[in-house]
Every structure is written in structure tokens, then in C-alpha cells.
Amino acid sequence: MIKRALISVYKKDKIYELASFLNSMGTQIISTGGTYKYLKEKGIPVVEVSEITGFDEILDGRVKTLHPKIHGGILAIRDNIEHMETIKEKGIEPIDMVVVNLYPFFEKVKDDISFEEKVEFIDIGGPTMIRAAAKNFEDVLVLTDVSDYDDVINQLKEKGDVDIKTRRKLAGKVFNLTSAYDSAVANFLLEDDYPEYLSISYKKEMDLRYGENPHQSAAYYVSTTEKGSMKDFEKLNGKELSYNNIKDMDVAWKVVNEFDEICCCAVKHNTPCGVAIGDSAADAYKKAFECDSVSIFGGIVAFNRRVDADTAKELVKIFLEIVIAPDFDEDALKILCEKKNLRVIKCSVKPCQKFEVCSVDGGILVQDTDKVLIDNIECVTQIKPDEKYYEDMIFGMKVVKYVKSNAIVVVKDKMAVGIAGGQVNRIWAAKQALERGKGASVLASDAFFPFSDVVEEASKYGIKVIIQPGGSINDNLSIKACDDKGIAMVFTKIRHFKH
Ligand SMILES: NC(=O)c1ncn([C@@H]2O[C@H](COP(=O)(O)O)[C@@H](O)[C@H]2O)c1NC=O
């Protein structure tokens, strides 16, 4: 039996329904200022907290419920005779239910308001009350999530009480929420990129059908406070997204956003398989398709420009999993939506990830994202690269950055005609890329050459320019091989390993 419930909610949705149900059960409702006013206006009998505490809300609401008359009523263990005698002596009455939703710090921290204003959205009294109720969950029912109201109402209707399993789950939800809330506050206040404790604050966006493989369970969580392209997008058509879809879409979107020119990127198995710059979205797509017309089947295709009907007509010719772009012309959308399963994603947020995490058994690795493409370009060979290859060199470096190491990309006229990666040595990646990208003039590598073998292989395929970070103790071997073969080679001094 819920004799007394304390309701203190920032967002008032569904609170009238819950309060009127409690009222119909004979529960006494206690509320803080705003909630009190809201319920009273709706005709629900309600007692103001200050009437219980004998103390007005002070300090602009910073102190409302922080009082022994409230916390004693929540924390007293009903089976503990001493506890019950103490609260009786002090004139404290038990509180059997606490309903709270917190100040919207997650939302407000992103808003364009001052630091001081953001600080005022750090809820103190709310977390204190719900933590207290959660600690005493066997005696005090705690509700922080509107989606739990119906279950609690139904149980109270049917049994007059709520079972212990539900009480415990609701208590667990409290600490799950307050830890994410506190993490968000900690990240807001701390200026340390790598603080003593890793505070992460992510909210479940959706349960996924499965993880990387069908026998693995999975869910997708998004940051409670940070913006992000893989969070702030709109799905305009198609089946639900999968675990692999989200990972692949992330790479495809990051690749196209490396470029100011019109770019299209196709991704398979988390690796770009076709990337090209074009005069239009359709042209870029046709060229990306040409890079590797085999692997693109079932791929994820990204554009950094609006997709028009001409492009859509090309896209629907083969089976694709996802098309992501900043926008779609109406007629393009119509064409794409004819394919019921094709996920069409509109995303206007540019990639803005500050840190990357990767988990290992018992730990999490955190690093700054790879944001620097090139330190400075230094030609290390006698032959200097012809200026006409400059754009292809930069293009190759931008693409190879997203290919798993060891990675080699060969380029022809701003098309990645040969992409090879994920090899345990560099020569295998080079051989694959060169074989696929016959006729290419530029070769880009994610890291230095330990031997001269890549240069020798490149010369067999007529490569004119090699761009790579440099920095091997054997750099002189590759430089000499380039000089012997008439290839120009430049160093960038920035490695782009991707493990
Ligand atoms: N200071 C307190 O004692 C306190 N007690 C409850 N709150 C919060 O006040 C909000 C509700 O306020 P109101 O009913 O006045 O609209 C809730 O989000 C609740 O979490 C408090 N506010 C912040 O710390």
C-alpha cells in the first residue's frame, strides 16, 4: 500500500495520470513548488513539501527537499524498530513512493547558454531523493522513467503492491541514470581529456537485432551530451539499421566529409571499396562504382552532396544496404524509396568526434581521433612529382587513412582504383592494390616502407608518385629504389595506422 508519495518532476508529462491514479487509491501526494502548482491546477489534492518540512524552498529552488523530514521518511527501514521509533519521535512520516525526473542537464549543457546557467541545471535534490529511495527499494518505490508508470499502475491495481523484482529493477535504473547524469556533469566541469575515472554518458538509442554476427546480442547507445553524425541523422526509408550498418555508415560518412569537392564513397566491411570525386553526385557515384564494381554490391554509399534523380536512378540498379547524404531531391527520394529495404539516411551533421574508444578484455583504450592528415610534404627523391599528380596524392592520403592497416591505395584522376588493406605485411597490400588499380599513377601508403619491395612492385605497374609518411630506418632503401626506377616519392610525416 502506498500511503504517501512524493512527486517532484521537471517534465510534467503523464504525471497527471499517475497522480490521479494514486489519489484514487487514497495515497497522499506531496510535491515541490512547480509540480504542486501543476497538480493543484488540475484538481489533484496535493500537499506542498514546505508544509511537511516547515521550511520554505530557498536559494532559488536549490534547497527544496533536502530535509530530514523528507530523507528520514524515505530512508527509514520499515522492519527496523529503532528506525521507526526514531522517525516517530522526530515527527517524520514514512514516504512510500518517490517520483522524480531530473533537471534536464543532458539537454541544457548543449544549449547556447552561459556556464553559470548550465550549472543551475545540475540537479542536486532530485538525485539525492531518488538515490535514497533506491537504496531503500524494498520499502520505497522509485519512479524516474515515464515508461515505467503503466506497469506500476497495473501492479497496484491488481495486487495493491508492486513486486520486489520490479522495485529492485526501478532502483537499479536510478543508479544507472544518476551515474550517466553525474558523468555528464563531470565531463562538463573537468577540462582533463584523460581524467582519473572514465566518465561516459550514453543513452540507449535502440536494441539491435544482433551484433556483428547473428548469435551476438547488441544495442546502440548515443551520447547524452555530445553532437554526432551517427546520432543526429534521419532515416527516411528502409529496414532498421544493424550493428554493421552503423559502423560502415560511420566510415563512409567520414570519408566523404574529408572532401570539399563532390565525393562519393562506397564501404564494405568497414573499408572503403570505391571512392571518387566527380562533377556531380551521379558522376562521383559512377566513378566510385567503377573503382570496384564487384565489392560495392550490398555496400553502404555516402555522398557529401544532395542526391538528385539522376544519381538515384544509378543507385537503384544494384543492391545497396544504405545511401547516406546531406539531403535528397524529392524525385530522387521517390526512386530510392521504391526499394523498400534500402535505408535512406539524411544527415546534415559533419563528423565531429573528439575521442575514439576501443575495448579490450578488462580495459578501454581512449585516443584522440586521427585529425591531422599531413605534417608537411617533403620530396625525398631526385625526381619531383609533377604538379598534375598533387591532387591525387592528397586524395590517396585521405582515403588510405580509413583503410585498415597495412593499407595501400592507388589513385587515378581522383578515383581510388585500387584499395587494399588489413594485410599483415605491406607488400601484400601493395600487390593487391596495384593489381586491382592498373593504370594508376599515384600510390598512397598509411605508414612507412620497411623495405624497397613496395617501390619495386609499384614500378612494375607504372606508378609515377608515391606518398607515404616516411620515418623507417630503411627509408634510404626505398628512396634509392625510387631514384633507380624514376619514381617521385614524398614524405608526409604523419602515419595513419588503423588497427
Ligand atoms: N533542491 C532540491 O531540494 C530539489 N528537490 C527536487 N528538485 C528537483 O526539482 C524538480 C521539480 O521542481 P518543481 O516541482 O518545482 O517544478 C525536479 O526535477 C527535482 O529533481 C530539487 N532541485 C534541485 O536540486
TrEMBL record:
The entry's keywords: Hydrolase, Multifunctional enzyme, Purine biosynthesis, Transferase
CDD domains from the UniProt entry: IMPCH
Reaction catalysed by this enzyme: (6R)-10-formyltetrahydrofolate + 5-amino-1-(5-phospho-beta-D-ribosyl)imidazole-4-carboxamide = 5-formamido-1-(5-phospho-D-ribosyl)imidazole-4-carboxamide + (6S)-5,6,7,8-tetrahydrofolate; IMP + H2O = 5-formamido-1-(5-phospho-D-ribosyl)imidazole-4-carboxamide
A single GO cellular-component term on record: cytosol
Entry annotated with the keyword Hydrolase: yes
Catalytic activity, EC: 2.1.2.3, 3.5.4.10
PROSITE patterns the record matches: MGS
Domain notes: The IMP cyclohydrolase activity resides in the N-terminal region.
Family: Belongs to the PurH family.
Protein name per Swiss-Prot or TrEMBL: Bifunctional purine biosynthesis protein PurH
Organism of derivation: Caloramator quimbayensis
